[in-house]
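Exercise 3.2. Students should predict the tertiary structure of the chain below and write it as C-alpha cells, then compare their answer with the key that follows.

Predict this chain's 3D structure.
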Amino acid sequence: MLTGKQKRFLRSQAHHIQPIFQVGKGGVNSNLVKQVEDALEARELIKVSVLQNCEEDKDTVAIELSTGSKAELVQVIGSTIVLYKESVNQKRIELP
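Answer key:
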C-alpha cells in the first residue's frame, strides 16, 4: 500500500503525462487489463481516460483496472484514472 506522501508524489509526477488508454463503450475487458499491465511494466505510472460513452462508472473502472493489473490506484480525478505499479525490470520512479 502507498502512503499519503507517496500518493502525493505520484500525483505530481502524473500531472504532466497524457492518458495512454481510453475506456469506452466496451468497458474493461481482459485484453485491456493485459495491455495496462504491459504499459505499467514499461512506464510504472500511467493515466487512463474514461470516455463519456462508457457504460460503467469511472470508480468501478478504476477498481477493475487496479485489481486486474495488481496496480495501486493513485487517483481518480474527473474522468482520468492514475495507476502505479513498481516495474520489475525497468524501475524508474523512486518513491519518497
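Discussion points: The helical segments are 4-14, 30-43, 58-68. The chain has a mean pLDDT of 94.
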